Amino acid sequence: MARSVLETAHKQWPSDVTCRGYLGLTLKLQGHHNLAVPHLLASVKSDQPETINSRFYFHLGDALQRLNRNDEAMEIYEKGVIKGIFRSKYQRSLYNVDRLKAKPWWTLEESTYSSFFRKLESNWRTIKSEGLGAYRERSGYLDEAESLRDIGDWKQYELFARGKKYQQNCKKTPVTCQLIEEFGAARDCRRGQVKFSVMTGGTHVWPHCGPTNCRLRAHLGLVVPAGTTIRVAQQTRTWEEGKVIIFDDSFEHEVWHNGTEQRLILIVDVWHPELTAKERASLTAI
């Protein structure tokens, strides 16, 4: 409906770059990247005040990346930085608290949550067993739902999301959920999730940014075959079974699984450590 209305409006007012921006945005969200790019480019390049729209810049760059036009995408992101839309060409979240420390990779100590993450590490075999047990039942693992996957198979099993517990899934993973419930920065993180993530060989996840800089994302390696890597900004790393890695997922990140066996990790989002208690209580869920 929205597409047809915007296409009609564009035919009637072809020079209206705001209309073209929203038409391009609609096409992009429907997965029509080739069709979306010319409209979004025309809108963004016009530099009219009404086209300095964070969603236009965000989705134009994303569409260009998915068309393997990466240099053009970076030009759009750099322009977005100049316009005050993005914090950097790699950190492109749209729901931010501007004063928070920003860096792609964090150590456990820098997160200030090292005791919690060490506890996860010490229980990793039990967490792995619960994640694999739930996977064998299949019912709770769902396909990734944000159209971030290029090729391959990537499923997720949610335990907590937006500060709410998935009771049915937690019944099958009681130790994992109890560990999360004991730690408020993860349990109550309304701008994050806790979930198992399983990925098969031959999977590639497009470069993308999380929606907010108000969280950090931890990955606990559970089953880590050869050929699995993750890039955050300009640095690429891999996982290690029984170990936690932490990054700020508001920075661009990309995942490859070039191996043959399944990769399983536990994803745990926690509040950014510099948020105040008042901010954690008042920030809206994402």
TrEMBL record:
GO MF term list: peptidyl-aspartic acid 3-dioxygenase activity
GO CC terms, sorted: endoplasmic reticulum
One of the Pfam families matching this protein, by short name: Asp_Arg_Hydrox
Residues of the Aspartyl/asparaginy/proline hydroxylase domain: 121-273
UniProt-listed SUPFAM superfamilies: Clavaminate synthase-like, TPR-like
Annotated family: Belongs to the aspartyl/asparaginyl beta-hydroxylase family.
Protein name: Aspartyl/asparaginy/proline hydroxylase domain-containing protein
Organism: Cuerna arida
